[in-house]
Amino acid sequence: MKRRDFMTFLAGVVAGFPRPASSTSRPRHIGVLMGVDGADASAQARVAAFREALAELGWTEGPNLRIDVRWTAGDIQRMRSEAAALVAEAPDAVLASGTPAIAALRDATTTIPIVFVTYGDPVTRGWVASLAQPGGNVTGLANFEASIGSKWLELLREIAPHIARVALLSNPHTEPPSLFIKSIKTAATALGIEALTADVYDDGEISQAISNIGRNGDGGLIALPDIFNTTHRATIIAEAARHRVPAIYSLRFFALAGGLISYGIDNLDVYRRAASYVDHILNGARPADLPVQLPSKFECVINLTTAKALGLVITPRLRVMANEMIE
């Protein structure tokens, strides 16, 4: 099934689920397992968007809803312990953000409904049987498709035409990069660019990887979608600036923090959409019957200050396609 046909099918299926008035004899309990730190302002904004969307659907904290948010700061062991603690409280549903957090919840329960927001492929991970018919107790929103990898490389080459090599930065323990590697390497061959995987596990390895790709003055960086990269974004952005390496990121908050360019989903929109799935579940829908949603809204953000510091010129085409340009 083509993506456009699948999205049309998905919209019809979701719209077809009845949504009764949210009346209940008891307050409902929603768990939220976040793979990042609670001090992360962008993560707080995502949870706020989720809360606001639930309120718009009639679920108000206090009178008929309790939301229990757990933060794990990228620590996989902590994700496992918090997942077990949430499951022990038997919530009505759990929102899970990030591959390791979803995996921890999936290991902890096969009955409590889980709505995920993930960078990876939920079918390959074994969380759902298929996008259209997930089966089991898990469904949600997949933030990226494999083909976006080629788009990142094309945009990076357009904003930095001199690059001949590109490092693909990720931590395989938190987000295996396999979803995007094929499309990036196919695009790299067509563009005459050498694509190199850069597996990193701490700040020191981030610094070394970026130093290596920046050594000859012809290197670029793709920071792949990964909770590790999100948690360590200050280091990645600082090292890219120090070694004068043009870098593209998957989410807007990287560009807001000083990253050169980002292209990816509207993250707040995704969390609002996740709230609609939680609403359906609270009103009796089964996760097994709710299709996994694919990304539908993308945004490009360019940091002009960073571009100027790197001596890069923003092409007219990039200016037109950018949703936001930061001075």
From TrEMBL:
Q: Which domain of life is it from?
A: Bacteria
Q: Which PANTHER family match?
A: ABC TRANSPORTER, SUBSTRATE-BINDING LIPOPROTEIN, ABC TRANSPORTER, SUBSTRATE-BINDING LIPOPROTEIN-RELATED
> What name does UniProt use for this protein?
ABC transporter substrate-binding protein
